Amino acid sequence: EVLGLFSENKSRAIILFKKFSNEESLDNFVDIKEDDEKLNEEEVFEYIRKYLNEKKIKLEQLNEKAYRIELEVLIKELISKSDLSLRRIAEITGVNREKVRKMNMSQEPSL
After folding, report:
1. 5, 30, 37, 75: least surrounded by Cβ within 10 Å?
2. CB neighbour list of residue 38: distance below 8 Å, 6 or more residues apart
């Protein structure tokens, strides 16, 4: 029992627990996104920017055949990590909606 950490005497433990609970903490905490928390639209733009910088690709190049796998990986990442619709992802990336839908349905990137 938690109260046992404060005192063997139950009424004393309750008093100490209340006092402890009301103390202000100076500890610093880092907010970590839980897996079920999705990226919003602003965060999606930042994610795309970082992804493209890392791959040294410009957004306009994504539709080129040479970057087909990178595009598919990016689209699948956006689908899984964001709360955006497939239509919105298509608009942001400049990819045809039907292509985004097909990428969403496929299991692995096409080679």
Report:
1. 30
2. 81, 82, 83
Spatial separation of the C-alpha atoms in residues 93 and 24, rounded to whole Å: 46
pLDDT at 27 over 90: no
What pLDDT, on the 0 to 100 scale, is given for residue 26?
A: 79
* 29's tokens: 């905490």
Six token digits for residue 71: 């595009």
Residue in the block written with tokens 């709360």: 83
Q: What is the pLDDT of residue 25?
A: 78
> pTM here?
0.63
Residues in the chain: 111
* Residues 67 and 53: beta-carbon distance below 8 Å: no
Do the beta carbons of residue 77 and residue 47 sit within 8 Å?
Answer: yes
- How many alpha carbons lie under 13 Å from residue 17 in its C-beta half-sphere? 14
29 Cα distance to chain centroid: 19
Tokens 């990178």 found at? 70
